[in-house]
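lol ok so funny story. i was supposed to be doing the assay writeup but got distracted and ended up predicting the structure for this chain instead. priorities right. anyway since i did it might as well share w the group, maybe its usefull for someone
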Amino acid sequence: MSDMITADLVDLDLSADTKEAAARALAERMVALGRVTDLEGFLADVAAREAQMPTGLDGGIGIPHCRSEHVTEPTLAFGRSAAGVDFGAADGPADLIFLIAAPAGADDAHLTILASLARQLMNADFTAALRSAGDAATAAALIRGEKPTPAAGTGATADTTGTGATANTTDPVATTDTTATGATADTTNTGAAADTTETGATARTPDTGATAGTPDTGAVSAAASAETAPGSTGRASAGGSDRPFRIVAVTSCPTGIAHTYMAAESLENAGREEGVEVVVETQGSAGFTRLDPTVIAAADGVILAHDVAVREKDRFAGKPTVDTGVKAAINRPGELIGEVRDKAARGEVTSASPGTTPVERGGESGEGYGTKLRKWLMSGVSYMVPFVAAGGLLIALGFAIGGYEINKAPSVTDHFVWTQADSWAALLFQIGGVAFAFLVPVLAGYIAYGMADRPGLVPGFVGGSIALTINAGFLGGLAAGLISGAVVLAIQRVPIPKALRGIMPVVVIPLVSAAVVGFLMFVVIGKPIASAQSGMTDWLGGLSGTNAVLLGALLGLMMCFDLGGPVNKVAYTFATAGIAVADPSDSAMKIMAAVMAAGMVPPLAMALATTVRGRLFNAAERENGKAAWVLGASFISEGAIPFAAADPLRVIPSSMVGGAVTGALSMAFDATLRAPHGGIFVVPLIGNPLLYLVAVAAGVCVTTALVILLKGLRRPVAGSAAQGAGGGADPSAPTPGAKEPVAA
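and the output, tada:
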């Protein structure tokens, strides 16, 4: 940390009276040293981070921090205020203020150093030394972890009265007392217990038999210590049990720089005081090291202190769990430990989750809102697709059996004749209509679920249903889902008395969120969205000629760009939303036909290419090609993923060209489709089916030709001939990048 803070970045007489003024005063010092390039831009990033959660901590500490593109190198500025500055801590203003500035792409090493500072802030000796520092150079040295030149009777001391005893005290405020003969004490970390990992080394306090850091008589015996998980500390619990109570914890904050590590240090310190063994996994910006599964298995309880989603949360299912915010772990760690012990005593455990939310799967700390938005939307679309497939196919079958007048048939609850085909057709049509009625509510509900987990479902479904009621359609469902998730997240940030927490998820959150979302959808934004939806529908209905062909080409490009990914799903959802009505327009059915035709092209083209020029593909790809025939014919674009993953620069552009050709031809041929899925199996339901198949065949041939041409131009690699003749990967082995096929 030697280059991260200097005396020029220290202000021991900070005169600011607001947190904004304090941040500006310290940031100006960073600007003067060239550490920050844009003062106002950096302060805006600091304010945005502060808006997520106040950065004041109990004990008179304020730690505003952010990652910003206006920061040239990791920098720390320190200010000491005599009057105090309010940073939102429960116990009042802060007199010690640290402004941490990290570049947007800060490396792990610097973030680790920042984490080390955050841990030091939980050490009372460290903060006391800062409050008594007489000059900026001394304060900067303390923060850097250096040993200031001590005046007489000050600084670190080592009392080594035993023969041969040595003390290594690199912490400027650490004090080591080793009275035992041959004792060795290593206190390189602030507040850390003596490290006695070497054979025969023992650090002892004057209390007979006590392990360093545990002044109470009756500390852990050698046998008990042997049971302790590596890296953890603890004492025997009261009552003389064989081992201490064991807790595993996860800490994480929005930026993953400060509070994450401060919460971890606070929990560990409280654990030592309580005689509880605490092992913490910090999910910070520098990444995280997963807790050993054996440590989790041996734990008696779990503490999740977080303000962002805990990654791989299901690891902790089945254990007594306290789930809270990260500041709670900093301010009242002892209470959290008591809560989890009480839950363990009552046998209260968390149930296994059916699965993590889309935001938690593969989520990375610090990812942008664009990435999160894509995951939220994909959550809604992925849950909606089965309703689309089931409802759409049932409706299509109803039309195929009963004709296009079947939508005017009376309800089968009033009129159903077992021996009449029209009655069965009406039954299929009406069941499909009921399934289709769930599309927008499911879309909205699971977008909210992706944002806020289960509490988002109620307002999401309510908002989606209102979108249908006011004819806001697909766009209204998107808006309702995002609003619902945001409302629930906002409610969850409101401090709630402990006595009311039990009714929050069952009564308060559903009631308040549904009321707020309903008000916004009915009164504020519903009508404008409905007007936009109507305008878009009218525009599509007026498309003809060249405009329709260009739209078909664009949709074909989108369907083949990422083969079942977000862009593919946008085009598919756009098409299905148009036919999700009792009487869709001719333009909507043309769009659906073009989308399905283009989605069939990539896997069929890969299957054809492996058949006509098998030597260009290895054995595994040829095996995948056999399956791609069926997948392509079934409109499962993901059948081409193994090929795209192995050779994206040749396969994806070729697929996009073929998809564009097919989409454009389908629109030009005026092909229509009421079914949202089915591939060649719903050809009887397609308007102009022969020309539709011609469009699909043309795109397949174009893609196949391009793939063969591009693969044939590449320079042969040694051993490729043998591979093409039957070598290569084991056909039974999974192809890199392949994923489970889902509806295109």
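Confidence is low (pLDDT under 50) at residues 150-240, 352-366, 716-744. The longest helix spans residues 369-402.
back to the writeup now i swear
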